[in-house]
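Here's what a typical entry looks like (dihydrouracil dehydrogenase (NAD(+))):
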Amino acid sequence: MDLSCDLMGIKLKNPLILSSGPMSRSGEMMIKALEAGAGAVVTETILNEIRPNVRPRLTGHDGALQNIRLYSEYSLEEWKRQIGMVKEHGGIVIANILAHSPSEMAFLGRTVERYGADALELGVSSPHGEGLSVLGCDPPNLYQTVKKVVESVKIPVMVKLSPNVNNLASLAKAAEDAGARGISAINTIRSILGVDIESMSPYLPTYGGYSGDPIRPIGLGAVATICQTVELSVSGIGGISQFNHLLEYIMLGARTCQLQSALIFKGLGVIGEILDGLSAWMESRGYNSLDEFRGKALNRLKSFDEIILEPKVAMVARECPRPDCSLCETACVYSAVAKDRRGKIQVDTDRCTGCGLCLSVCPESCFTLEWKR
């Protein structure tokens, strides 16, 4: 089974990449991810000067993570050794860098290129620390910065975009026009994960980056938007913890995917589990390469105006084997679904409007949508 893929002209053995974050804070940690099966690694955010991190800075609840960790605590000079360790191990390293001006970003890019980085990921936004009025919100400024970096290095440049904007397509196009060869999306989402109601304090003392399984729908929407807008390599990020999550991103056009939160919660073994699941799924369906199904779901994504209004209603496809289950009846906002005392499902087709919710909430697939008779 061939899981290899091309990212900005770089050949990867598989599409799963360790994203920038606490798990990529050192050469040692990145090597562990490569040994667990990752196709490449992205460094923690590298700056021109050290900025200490606050304590505490991470909190996790219900499969979600809030992070107020800012940047690497290693100096720029120390990253020469950390990147060198990974290169000696044979790994592909994408250096995530962040600066406050185009010239500083270009300087960082040239420096980590000398250190051996195979590509750059420009960190142009952060949901905390930098606030929301940052480079990643302004297409003209983004264009100037990306252009400056592209002109300063020989390795490919990827731009990491934030979901905390309302002009994602414009930002992606600005990056493409400036010469970027890839987009990664999404960065974490500005959040407050929760409040301790006894102490009346938030779990962490400031806004932070929200990540983990709950943000996957936002990541999928962003990747689809970007893939419909630009002809660049896209690396999907957000809520990937199972092989089917990886498949969703690829089917919406992503060439690779990055993960971090799942590894924090479940360990590096998740990488192998996802890749094994991907291989088994492809083999069971006769696929030999990722390109055979890449973008297939994107091709079926329509604008609202393109949707054909079809007079369909819910119909019972099979009798429910769970007499005590009432999920469909409870969820039907049109009061069209009911169960009798024996558990037999009844659909009032005069009330049913074909919304489709019963199909998604039913754990036994008892419903279909059919033309109204």
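The chain has a mean pLDDT of 91.

More examples are in the samples folder.
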